[in-house]
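Input structure tokens:
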């Protein structure tokens, strides 16, 4: 039970709702729509943590690569990006508990569309950090490159037996805690 508490605390940070939009400032004119807020901080990094950009095992890296490539294709396609984002999440989350949570998946799609609208379409991606919590939990941090600034993506995988499964994910635009 003692070993489970840090994992539960970690998961609690990631499961928290995405950042709500900021209310209109009192100096705004009536009827003006505030700009959509970017994604919230998904989890601060440790102060002395040195990133380990080692790629994850192929069974984890393959679906993540396909996910990012599908999101990137949305920018190049002349189709509705929202439909492409939905397809990316449907494929990536298939067979996971997140994939069965349609409300949460809708929020992911909406926040992705908002973020890519603010920062530009996904140009490229790279692994930033790969670390383990024990021998059966892996936390991966990727950075996606956009016209205005990068986004940070966090994926948590759990291996209850011989196969890794995605148990949580999120993204944000908070990069200050990654600086030395």
């Amino acid at each position: 039970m003692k070993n489970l508490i840090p994992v539960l605390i970690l998961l609690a940070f990631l499961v928290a709702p995405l950042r709500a939009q900021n209310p209109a400032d009192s100096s705004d004119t009536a009827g003006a729509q505030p700009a959509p807020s970017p994604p919230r901080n998904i989890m601060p990094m440790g102060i002395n943590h040195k990133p380990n950009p080692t790629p994850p095992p192929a069974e984890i890296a393959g679906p993540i690569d396909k996910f990012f490539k599908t999101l990137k294709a949305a920018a190049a396609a002349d189709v509705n990006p929202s439909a492409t984002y939905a397809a990316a999440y449907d494929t990536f989350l298939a067979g996971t508990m997140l994939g069965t949570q349609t409300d949460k998946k809708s929020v992911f799609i909406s926040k992705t569309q908002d973020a890519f609208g603010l920062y530009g379409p996904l140009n490229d991606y790279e692994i930033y950090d790969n670390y383990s919590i024990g021998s059966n939990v892996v936390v991966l941090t990727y950075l996606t490159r956009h016209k205005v600034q990068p986004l940070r993506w966090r994926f948590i995988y759990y291996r209850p037996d011989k196969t890794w499964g995605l148990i949580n994910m999120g993204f944000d635009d908070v990069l200050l805690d990654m600086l030395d």
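Residues 1-30 have pLDDT under 50 and may be disordered. Strands lie at 124-133, 137-145, 151-158, 165-172.
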